From TrEMBL:
It comes from Halioglobus maricola. One of its GO terms (molecular function) is oxidoreductase activity, acting on the CH-OH group of donors, NAD or NADP as acceptor. InterPro entries: NAD(P)-bd_dom_sf, SDR_enzymes, SDR_fam. This is SDR family oxidoreductase. Belongs to the short-chain dehydrogenases/reductases (SDR) family.
Length: 224
């Protein structure tokens, strides 16, 4: 049975991903910063583990807890929207620092912490949930910290793909769409159910030829 670990799985896209993965018969590990409060996640029947992607002790504890567990796919979903100032003049750079800690460095920390588990898995797939807002070509202004954090994540993934691809890995970044979650808001274009179904279909079709690519939830390539 394929084993998948999903970070930030206590709500929104992460929670829906766990639900649909379980429905597809996958063995799923979902992480949350506060597992005691993750009632819906526990109700899915997934294994629940504590993880704060910005905390070294939390990462080390997860790696120790999962020592010897084979992980076929890692989905780095945990993220924050960051500050949305009206203009550059209002930008809070301390807030941008935090956005990078979670959205850019967080996924890399998790991947590094679980690399032995991924080495032992069959699929050797790493998916980073990014955003079209990380596309330089499609930048329409604003959201300085969020856009930059996702563009940096995309670059990190490209480097990771170059290195780990030689070891049989497939590392991709994925735009889930504008989704009706706490982050996306109620006016977003699609539901979490639609977004996740699309992404899981894309995941199922990934091969080494996709290594280093940037896709949306419908499997369409996004320009860098």
């Amino acid at each position: 049975m394929m084993t998948v670990l999903v970070t930030g799985a206590n709500r929104g896209i992460g929670l829906e991903m766990v639900k649909q993965m379980k429905a597809r018969g996958l063995d799923v590990i979902g992480t949350a910063r506060k597992p005691a409060e993750a009632d819906e996640l526990r109700a899915t029947g997934a294994r629940v583990e504590q993880l704060d992607v910005t905390d070294a002790d939390s990462l080390a504890a997860l790696a120790e807890t999962l020592k010897g567990v084979k992980i076929d796919m890692l989905v780095n979903n945990a993220g924050v929207g960051g500050q949305a100032p009206e203009s550059f003049r209002d930008t809070d750079f301390a807030a941008i620092d935090w956005t990078f800690e979670v959205n850019t460095l967080g996924p890399m920390r998790v991947t590094q912490a679980l690399i032995d588990n991924l080495d032992a898995g069959q699929q050797k797939t790493v998916v980073h949930i990014s955003s079209v807002m990380g596309s330089i070509e499609k930048n329409r202004g604003g959201y300085y910290g969020y856009r930059a954090s996702k563009a940096a994540l995309n670059m990190m993934n490209k480097s990771l793909a170059q290195e780990l691809g030689k070891e049989g890995y497939t590392c991709v970044v994925m735009h889930p769409g504008w989704v009706q979650t706490r982050m996306g808001g109620p006016d977003a274009a699609i539901t979490a159910e639609v977004s996740v179904k699309g992404m899981l279909d894309v995941f199922a079709g990934l091969s080494p030829d996709d290594n280093g690519r940037f896709y949306d939830y419908q499997g369409e390539s996004i320009p860098w």
